[in-house]
Design a protein that fits this description.
38% of the residues lie in helices and 19% in strands. The protein has one domain: Alpha/Beta hydrolase fold, catalytic domain (Rossmann fold, 3-Layer(aba) Sandwich). The radius of gyration is 17 Å and the shape is globular. It is α/β, with parallel strands linked by helices and 259 residues long. Helix 2 packs across helix 3. A hairpin with a 2-residue loop joins strand 1 and strand 2. The chain has an eight-stranded mixed β-sheet with strand order 1-2-4-3-5-6-9-10, sandwiched between helices. The protein has a two-stranded antiparallel ribbon with strand order 7-8.
């Protein structure tokens, strides 16, 4: 199920399972393919599902310099290398930027995209901005990052026990260094998916948690307004990782969209 392929000179860790139409899952910043497990485990029953560690993350190579275009180029090459037939792409946060950028840069290689907790552009990663606001710099230690995540990512009613249960089996065994985190921050310097939004002609579903403190609902509203073929749903009672607090609802929404 898990293997390594070389994409654009980067050793990339992937896992795949199931059969049927192709689907590819893309995780968010500082995370890994494991965080997508709840979606992976559900959709592998009906789809051929691929999840991978984005360059700079998890078990994949961690070069010093890369950007959003590199992420999109990697996704294109994964599709080519694995002979995927216009997969559905589901991206979480930074993964949604990658899916959207890919749909703009390579308009014919995806069939549909789902954007979870997204936004259209920014000068820096919103995680970096939040870290600087809380810490004075981006050299944040893991305990402080954990506190930051709790404040910004999860819905108010989500308990520490809920979060701990969610991450059981859904976290990479690889811990990023502070230098690796800085390189990831730099990859989202002045990112923009707005300028080429009109190139996206495939169906797009935008899902955002009501309590998303990283990419608030108003950012998803802006993305919905700029895309000609999108639909927006605000998931009540959910935070940034909407399928944590509202798994069944999010899966049902995605199911209805892709069917």
């Amino acid at each position: 199920m898990e293997s390594t392929i070389t994409i654009n000179g980067i050793n990339t860790s992937i896992k795949q399972a199931g059969s049927g139409p192709d689907m590819i899952l893309i995780h968010g910043i500082f995370a890994s393919k494991e965080i997508m497990n709840p979606l992976f485990d559900y959709f592998k029953e009906s789809y051929h599902v691929i999840s991978y560690d984005v360059r700079g993350h998890g078990k994949s190579d961690k070069p010093e310099k890369f950007d959003l275009d590199d992420y999109a180029d990697d996704l294109k090459e994964i599709i080519r290398e694995l002979n995927l037939e216009k997969p559905i792409a589901i991206g979480l946060s930074m993964g949604s930027y990658i899916a959207l950028k890919t749909a703009e840069k390579y308009p014919t290689i995806l069939s549909k995209i789902v954007l979870l907790g997204t936004r259209g552009q920014g000068k820096i990663s919103l995680m970096q901005k939040a870290a600087e606001e809380n810490n004075g710099n981006d050299n944040i230690d893991l305990k402080e990052m954990g506190r930051l995540i709790s404040r910004r990512v999860y819905a108010p009613d989500t308990t520490p026990e809920d979060v701990a249960n969610f991450y059981k089996g859904n976290r990479s065994e690889v811990e990023l260094t502070n230098d690796e985190r800085k390189n990831i921050y730099a990859s989202l310097s002045h990112y923009d998916m707005v300028s080429d939004a009109d190139k996206v002609q495939i169906p797009v579903l935008i899902l955002v948690g009501e309590h998303d403190g990283i990419n608030p609902p108003e950012e998803s509203v802006k993305v919905n307004e700029m895309l000609p073929t999108s639909r927006l749903v605000i998931v009540e009672g959910a935070g940034h990782i909407a399928y944590l607090e509202k798994k069944t609802e999010v899966i049902n929404l995605i199911d209805s969209f892709i069917e």
